Amino acid sequence: MHISQINIYPIKSLKGINLDASAVEERGLALDRRWMLVDENNQFLTQREVPAMALIRVQLFEKNITASIDGKTLEIPGQPDGDPATVKIWTSSVKGRFYDAAIDGWFSEAIGRTCRLVMMPEETKRKVNPFYAVRKFKDTVSFADGYPFMLISEASLTDLNSRMETSVPMDRFRPNLVVAATEPFAEDGWKKVRIGETIFHVVKPCERCVITTVDQLTGEKSGKEPLKTLAAFRNRNGKVLFGQNLIAENPGGVVRVDDEIEILEIRP
Questions:
Q1: Structural contact between residues 19 and 256, judged by C-beta atoms closer than 8 angstroms
Q2: CA dihedral defined by 174, 171, 118, 56, rounded to 10 degrees?
Q3: Which helix (H) or strand (E) holds 95?
Q4: CA 260 to CA 110: how far, in whole Å?
Q5: Separation CA 39–CA 36 (nearest Å)
Q6: Pairing of strands 57-61, 214-215
Q7: In the chain, what is the straight-line distance between the N-terminal and C-terminal CA atoms, in Å?
Q8: CA–CA separation, 64 vs 45, rounded Å?
Q9: Among 130, 192, 201, 257, which is disulfide-ready with 265 (CB 3.0 to 4.6 Å)?
């Protein structure tokens, strides 16, 4: 078993970036979901409300990032010079920092509604749910929905696609780590794994939402799949599950494509 893909999503819910390697930090892979768009009430925005967010491409250039759509490109400094902010993501109130009005205007035009770009500074500590934390009340997460890392196996997607008339690609599920050479849904039985020098705890299945129905090439919802099929065989207490959320026990290392995965503990 080995890592076949590494993905980060610097600005939450925009296009991801495929990498050969990434540093493992406490709150996720380096630069993963450190930025986010919020509405006029400082509430987070995603493809759930604005599917067209899928069309904005993000690239990394040293410490800065760029966003582009329809031939228009925006350069974004890694460190904003705007006002401090408190923004909402799910039940969390998170301290961040806004960018200037020109950057906000570019994104507002790109997604067709008023929004602002916010960055999560290094000193911000957004805690994960303590029930699933490896280090109680100490584990943190970026602007990801709830946990620092998310993993899916290629075999699980192959199994899902075999049940549907039209296959969907892996980008519908926005994983950080994709695993090759496993049985379908093998990751459901893992409790602790080692990838490179990093030990990851497999803490919770990932609950899937309507974003999985958004075609990442067109920025439009494509119908009820794959949620409809997943709900038929991956439904637990009304939650549709696909993939696993991870927390790093010893952040500070690096994960690389082709790294082998060692299973340290399995679930009873």
A1: no
A2: 180
A3: strand 92-98
A4: 40
A5: 10
A6: unpaired
A7: 21
A8: 22
A9: 192
| Percentages of the chain per state (helix, strand, coil), in multiples of 5 | 15, 40, 45
Strands 17-19 and 190-195: unpaired
Tens digit of pLDDT for each residue in 56-104?
A: 999 998 778 999 999 999 999 999 989 999 999 999 999 999 999 999 9
Q: Model pTM? A: 0.97
Of 31, 24, 47, 30, which Cα lies nearest the Cα of 246?
24
DSSP symbol at 217: T
pLDDT tens, 102-159?
Answer: 999 999 999 999 999 999 999 999 999 999 999 888 999 999 999 999 999 999 999 9
C-alpha radius of gyration, the chain, whole number: 18
Closest alpha carbon to 36 in 14, 57, 65, 16: 14
